[in-house]
Amino acid sequence: MKLSVGIITFNEENRIGKTLDSVREIADEVIVVDSGSNDRTVEIALAKGAKVFVEKWKGYGPQKNSVLKKCKGEWILLIDADEVISPQLKVKIKSIINSENPSGDVYKIKLRNIAFKKEIKFGGWDDYVIRLWKNGKVKINSREVHEQYQTDSQIKKIKKMIIHYTYDSIEEFLEKLNRYTSQSAKEYIKKGKNPSFIKIYSKMLFRFIKMYILQLGFLDGYEGYLLAKYSSIYTMTKYTKLREEYYNNLGNDTSLVITTYNWPKALEACLNSALDQTVTPKEIIIADDGSKQETIDLVKRFQQSYPQSNIIHSWQEDKGFRAGMSRNRAISKATGNYIIIIDGDLILNRHFVEDHIKNMERGCFIQGSRVITSPAMAKEIMEGKKINLFTKGLKNNMNMVRSKLLSKIFTKVDRNLRGVRSCNMSFFKDDLIRVNGFEEEIEGWGREDSELAVRLFNIGCKKKKLKFEALTCHLYHNENDRSRLKKNDEYLAKAIENKKTKAKKGLDRYERSNAGNN
């Protein structure tokens, strides 16, 4: 068997017949791998004598490799369902495959594109593509889109043409644009790419300039302009989808824990800000230290209104201020491997979760900062008032400034207890497990966060004091009872003195924490 022709198809009833007719005189077999067409593609291909295999779509690279495995011929011609072999090319292919001593084993063939019913000669569209080779001489990588052909053989050129019918209409172009850009975005997300707005805009602009001016696309008239314009839109759409996909996935391994106690009005404002994030956490866990029915009802309302946000209510009986225990219970329920802890009286900047995740660093926990409000301003914020750097009734106003540049300059990494506050912190869960979470022997207000930091320092972690990112606004409230502060100071001093690394009563008390296994 001399020549196998391979084609992948999906809903190509308007073209596949013409494509198959163009190879009928030179093909000993035609292999079609269809991706589940719901039109007459398969029926037409069978009627034209092709061997048709229907397989689930795996991406361009894997799908074409499936075709190659089924080809039995000495030579392979791999074409697309919208390509036609010109009469001149058929003669050339016959001479190559029937020659006892062909000039090469792998051939690039000139591709002439027909777009919007016009022959396109400029704009970078007049190109050569690998289409013909001796069986086994070319491999195709497994990329889902823009697959690459790989060979160790010298590549020869054939000037006779394949006619490529790309887009008959704008509608068809846009349909393919949507499909191809989605596949490209998925391919890029695997590589961890995240384009900035400037990169997206510059790539879009350059694509147009390159095609229309540098590659003389303007010589193709109105159709040349359309191709350059819509190709730049393709580039923009591809990277925009990538950026969207990146942010959609960024919080997939992060749990947000919100501590609360009998202040549903503040919790409601806090939850609204948590649900308005640029990056959505995997779950939001309410660490409730025994709140009454009003808070329970509030959480249920949010769970019903935002089922996709996976809001979990972790409640414990009210037996006094037991923030450490409340947080441990919540952390034990967390399925994310990165934990952000905040208090339920904070309003979060919409980039808050994003900033914590992007700044996470192995061997560190993050300590964020806050703006403090006056009583009157706290009331206005809970009633829906938006605030900014210049809002009156705020302390530490500079903590309202979000700047990646300033953050790089002023963020510090150290082992200093100064400024440790559990109202805005984040950790790798396995670090929390190593130190057994918060020390539950510390009850009442104060020092449970500092004591945790000491133990993290003692296992080798550092504090990353984050400035100008992960911004929060703290709603004013009366001070908590501090009658146990002196005793808690003693706990902290002993932890420092004894170089303590693990809580006596901590995460290992809860079934899902896995702390007992570490």
TrEMBL record:
Which keywords accompany this UniProt record?
A: Glycosyltransferase, Transferase
Query: Which Gene Ontology terms cover its molecular function?
Result: glycosyltransferase activity
| One Pfam family hit | Glyco_transf_7C
| CDD domains listed in its UniProt record | Beta4Glucosyltransferase, GT2_Chondriotin_Pol_N
Which ranges carry the Galactosyltransferase C-terminal domain? 413-468
Class of this enzyme: transferase
Asked if the Swiss-Prot or TrEMBL record annotates the protein with the keyword Metal-binding, the reply is: no
What EC number(s) is this enzyme filed under? 2.4.-.-
Glycosyltransferase 2-like domain location: 4-108, 255-374
Record-linked InterPro entries: Galactosyl_T_C, Glyco_trans_2-like, Nucleotide-diphossugar_trans
Q: Which PANTHER family is this protein grouped with?
A: GLYCOSYLTRANSFERASE, POLY-BETA-1,6-N-ACETYL-D-GLUCOSAMINE SYNTHASE
Q: What is this protein called?
A: Glycosyltransferase
Organism per entry: Leptotrichia mesophila
